[in-house]
Amino acid sequence: MNFGLNLSQLMAAYNIKVNSIAQLIGVNQGYISKVRHGKASVSFEQFEKIGETLEKAGATEIELELLCDHFISEKTGIPFKNLQNKKSLNDDITVDEMLLLNNFRKLPDDEKVTIVETVTRKVWQLENK
User: Fold this and answer.
1) Rg, C-alpha atoms of the chain
2) Could you tell me the domains of the chain?
3) Cα 4 to Cα 32: distance, rounded to the nearest angstrom
4) DSSP-based three-state secondary structure for 60
């Protein structure tokens, strides 16, 4: 995953339109399309505005940190995985999985136990068919 793909997923997840981001950072929609496809980049100031918009739309801290790591990786050339200091995040986690985990954390403990037991049982059934 790269910055553009991560940005695209977050924009879709929080229903942020291309024209909104374009107007916010002072570029046209075509430029945002290039950013989303990895063919152009945004400045630090533009990135800050995008982050603020995503945060206002409801993006979680972990989603914003991941986007920031991708941005820094693209700007510095430092491999994305080298920027991460959390074992729970890696290049394979999707925005949807992060949202699911974030929502799971908000549940009461008894509901978490029920969900884990149900998933464990289902996995066992699938593995033992």
Assistant:
1) 17
2) 3-127 (1.10.260.40)
3) 9
4) coil
pLDDT tens digits for range 68-87: 888 888 887 776 665 554 44
Q: What is the pTM of this model?
A: 0.62
Count how many Cα atoms sit within 13 Å of the Cα of residue 119 in the half-sphere of its side chain: 7
- Summarize pLDDT for 8-40 with one digit per residue, the tens: 999 999 999 999 999 999 999 999 999 999 899
Nearest to 95 by CA among 63, 118, 127, 48: 63
Residue 97 makes CB contacts below 8 A (sequence gap 6+) with none
Q: How many CA atoms within 13 Å lie on the side-chain side of 55?
A: 13
Whole-number Å distance between alpha carbons of 74 and 29: 21
